[in-house]
């Protein structure tokens, strides 16, 4: 579904992504791991249109999407979440979901005056859809709470719920487990697996929790210093000498081996 060819993103002399090439198969949950500063989030930002590449190409279903802005990629079904959730705190959880679909009739002044019935009908459908998403994510009890007042883990579930309000094809999840307690992380993991198996979502997941990655992801791609270091199953990459060295350093690696 996604093919990245020899991608570079430089910030002056610093090469945050330095010739990375990856493929994300349709219907997969692909893990992307690596030490801090490996270039994982920068790679996500380039693929998702938040940053232009210095060079290289990105393809989605064979179409060159290199450098397209996020709103165009949104309409193609490519979405991403962030390490820090981006909720609208003064709105309720349900309202955060209802505002996601584009081109709503109520967004134009003409319709606000002359097509109120159409707007009301759309809002009822959106409310029903939002309630279905909240039920799927087991957070219906939060529907009328202000988004600013829910926990960090619940905000991560809300971000995942936003992807369900549109026809998402592939979702990039950036450290979905950061700051989330184990119970909520399991709930998030269950939702990702169900969306993958029941609704055909493709995921690419950045995460440092290897238990979480091991439960969800196959294959796993490892980055270090802006480059792809290894790829395989969780067990394969965990036992790869290059991966051990990238995470632990040569001295600690040799000490553990000894």
From TrEMBL:
Molecular functions (GO terms): ATP binding; ATP hydrolysis activity
Pfam families the UniProt entry points to: ABC_tran, BCA_ABC_TP_C
Domain of life of the source: Bacteria
Protein name per the record: ABC transporter ATP-binding protein
Domain (ABC transporter): residue spans on this chain: 2-250
InterPro entries reported in the protein's UniProt record: AAA+_ATPase, ABC_AA/LPS_Transport, ABC_transporter-like_ATP-bd, ABC_transporter-like_CS, BCA_ABC_TP_C, P-loop_NTPase
UniProt keyword NAD present: no
Transmembrane region(s): none
Assigned keywords, A-Z: ATP-binding, Nucleotide-binding, Transport
GO cellular component term, pick one: plasma membrane
